[in-house]
Q: What sequence folds into this?
């Protein structure tokens, strides 16, 4: 076995004992199940009371790792991400949607606007092969049907 593999087995974390046979290092705090329950209950109380700094802010970074407000802020940020996605992108969208827009006619000459305002010619009905006859509007009982002679014309 290599030296690196032996050292990896001998290292210990806060939740495990040293596999080489010794106990975990005293400098690493041992977390008991009651501690986790207490941390979760305190974080839930802070979350519901909304007494925590914004996630990632300098005040949040200054909190101790086992401070329940730190977990409450992370839970709140995760819930907001689940509901609304990226907050900065959402705020940027709101700013863009609410900014004033130039008038539609700005940048166009009066002649261009008059040309756009003219009514379009009516659509000419045309029978198509395979489709049923078309009733002609304004002429009761008159239908436009497809015939081979019309197709050649």
A:
């Amino acid at each position: 076995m290599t030296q690196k593999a032996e050292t990896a087995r001998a290292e210990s974390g806060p939740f495990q004992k040293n596999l080489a046979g010794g106990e975990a290092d005293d400098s690493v705090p041992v977390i008991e199940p009651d501690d986790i329950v207490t941390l979760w209950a305190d974080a839930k109380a802070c979350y519901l009371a909304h007494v925590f700094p914004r996630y990632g802010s300098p005040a949040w970074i200054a909190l101790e790792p086992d401070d329940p407000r730190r977990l409450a802020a992370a839970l709140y940020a995760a819930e907001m991400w689940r509901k609304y996605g990226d907050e900065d992108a959402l705020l940027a969208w709101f700013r863009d949607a609410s900014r004033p827009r130039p008038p539609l006619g700005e940048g166009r000459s009066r002649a261009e606007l008059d040309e756009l305002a003219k009514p379009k010619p009516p659509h000419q009905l045309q029978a198509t092969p395979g489709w049923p006859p078309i009733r002609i509007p304004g002429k009761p009982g008159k239908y436009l049907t497809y015939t081979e002679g019309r197709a050649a014309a």
